[in-house]
Amino acid sequence: MNDEIISKMKTQMKKTSENLELELGRIRAGRANASLVNDIMVDYYGTPTPLGQIASVSTPEARLIQITPFDKTALKGIEAAINMSDLGINPTIDNSMIRLVIPQLTGESRKDLVKEVKKYAEESKVAVRNARRDAIDALKKEKKNGDISEDVMHQKENEVQKQHDEYIKKIDEIAANKEKEITTI
Fold it and tell me: Which PANTHER family match (predicted)?
C-alpha cells in the first residue's frame, strides 16, 4: 500500500511539472512559438475546436507564426478567434494562410512576464508540497493502523522528501529557463 502512496505522489508531481511547462509555453517571450496559438478555440462548423486541430501552425522566422488551415473556409473563423483571444496580436490574412508577427517586448513587459513565470512556478511548488504532505499523512495513517513499522515509515518519508526536492529543483530549472528566454534580447 505504501508503494501506491509514493507512486500516486510521483504521478501528481510529474503532472504538476508538465503542466508548468505547458503554461509557461503559452507565455509570449518575444519569439514565435506554436504553443501560443495551438489551444485557441475556433468556431469550426458550430463546434469549438482547438486551432492546432484544424490548421498547420509553423514558425518560419523567429518572430512570425504562420497558420495554414486544412480547410480554407476556416480562415475567417480562425482570424476571429485570434482577435477574440488574449494574445494581443492582429492576424494578417495572406492568400490561404494567416500570419502573426510577434512584437518585440519592452523592458516593462519583460518584467511583467517574469513575475507571471514566478507566480506559475510558485503555484507549482505549492502543488508539489501538497502532494508531499498528502503522502506523508497517508504514511502516518498506515503506521497508526499498524500496517507499517516506524522504520519503514521513516524510510518512506525520506523517499517522499527526496522526490519532493527533485521536483522543486526541476520546477526552479523550468522557471529559470523561461525567465532567461524572456529576458534575452
Answer: MITOCHONDRIAL RIBOSOME RECYCLING FACTOR PSEUDO 1 (PTHR20982:SF3), RIBOSOME RECYCLING FACTOR (PTHR20982)
Question: Is the Cα torsion angle 81, 84, 88, 91 positive or negative in sign?
Answer: positive
pLDDT in tens, the chain (185 residues): 668 888 899 999 999 999 988 888 777 666 677 777 877 888 888 888 888 888 888 888 878 888 898 888 888 888 888 888 877 788 888 888 888 888 777 788 788 888 989 999 999 999 999 999 999 999 888 888 888 888 888 898 999 999 999 999 999 999 999 888 888 76
Cα angle at 172 between 123 and 175, to 5 degrees?
75
**Structural domain of residue 43, as residue ranges?**
34-101
User: Checking DSSP bridges between strand 92-94 and strand 55-61, what pairing results, if any?
Assistant: unpaired
Tell me how far CA of residue 5 lies from CA of 28, 70, 128, in angstroms.
37, 45, 14
CATH number at residue 80: 3.30.1360.40
| CA 46/CA 51 separation, integer angstroms | 14
146: phi then psi, degrees, rounded to nearest 5:
85, 15
Neighbours of 94 (CB within 10 A): 9
DSSP-H helix ranges across 72-106? 75-84
- Which amino acid belongs to residue 183? T
Output the nine-digit C-alpha cell for 55: 490548421
Q: What's the N-to-C CA distance of the chain in angstroms?
A: 51
